[in-house]
Write a structure and sequence with these properties.
Layout lengths: L9 E4 L9 H10 L4 E6 L3 H4 L6 H14 L3 E6 L12 H21 L3 E4 L11 H21 L2 E5 L9 H11 L4 E4 L2 H6 L4 H8 L6 E3 L25 H10 L6 E3 L8 H18 L9
Parallel strand pairs: 1-2, 1-8, 2-3, 3-4, 4-5, 5-6, 7-8
Helix pairs in contact: 1-3, 4-5, 6-8, 8-9, 9-10
């Protein structure tokens, strides 16, 4: 047994870098900032959804760039299902959701991506009800089967909406799906923002967690809807000291990803500030720091 847990591997969310960067620039910048991997985004925009239709030359050229710079694309944030949700009342939209899922798994397989993060809501732009929930369950069972066949892990994000905003709710969902390839990808900011006890939640689901998003948020109150994005880590209400203490206590060494957004010219200094604060949280928890000084 190690006297101290080994250092967590830590990645950077693609949107923390400027959109205009080429893939080589994104990879090199991520490496220079001291990260171990980059998390690619496939969101609902036409530009990023088009990545699901890349030809093999494009895919393997990107993979060669990653190999050249020794920085993998370890995970994919697949939020395209916001536009084409599995829970939709429209059968044609549910069909598109399945097509998007199949393409994402194929892309992940070819790029060497290990984990695909799924959005944890049944619908987003239409009313939710018992039918949309049942459609979502059916879609997740289908997605899990696709993932099992490819050997690519699916991990549901704990979200900023109340449909799936805690790991407790994930545990109920997980019993329905019942697949070793259907796991949890908690966003500590979302869980904290909805006022759940983040340490209890992490300890509850630790056997099912494959990766964790590190993000800061402001909590929801009776008079305030909270803020779930665009904060630099350390500016919000999330107790990162307690989170890393829990990771240490549970001997959890899953990969971590800093989730931030490049909104202005301060994107690099914002990332560096977040790195400093996360290192401090590691030191408080008596864990190896994530980034070199």
């Amino acid at each position: 047994m190690f006297e101290m847990m080994q250092r967590h591997r830590v990645g950077l969310y693609e949107k923390a870098l400027p959109d205009h960067f080429s893939w080589e620039q994104k990879i090199k910048e991520t490496k220079q900032l001291g990260f171990d991997f980059l998390e690619i985004s496939v969101d609902e925009s036409d530009e990023r959804r088009s990545r699901l239709d890349w030809d093999d030359n494009t895919i393997y050229e990107l993979r060669r760039l990653c190999e050249e710079h020794a920085l993998p694309l370890q995970s994919m944030c697949l939020s395209a299902h916001r536009k084409f949700p599995f829970g939709s009342q429209d059968e044609s939209i549910r069909h598109q959701a399945a097509i998007h899922m199949e393409k994402a798994i194929t892309l992940a397989y070819k790029l060497g991506i290990r984990t695909i993060q799924l959005a944890g809501y049944d619908v987003y732009y239409e009313p939710a009800n018992e039918a949309t929930h049942k459609h979502f369950i059916e879609g997740m069972k289908l997605a899990a089967q696709m993932a099992e066949r490819a050997g690519v892990m699916l991990a549901v994000e704990i979200m900023d909406t109340d449909y799936l905003n805690s790991l407790s709710k994930f545990e109920i969902l997980n019993r329905e799906i019942n697949s070793p390839y259907f796991t949890a990808y908690p966003d500590v900011g979302n869980i904290s923002g909805w006022n759940y006890d983040i340490c209890t939640e992490l300890a509850l689901s630790m056997p099912h967690i494959v990766q964790i998003h590190l993000k800061d948020t402001y909590q929801v109150t009776a008079t305030y809807q909270g803020q779930f994005r665009d904060l630099v880590i350390g500016e919000g209400d999330v107790d990162f000291n307690a989170i890393f203490t829990t990771l240490n206590a549970t001997q959890c060494v899953v990969p971590l990803v800093i989730e931030m957004w490049a909104k202005d010219d301060n994107w690099r200094s914002n990332i560096q500030q977040a790195q400093t604060r996360l290192n401090q949280a590691c030191e408080h928890a008596r864990l190896p720091t994530l980034f070199a000084a």
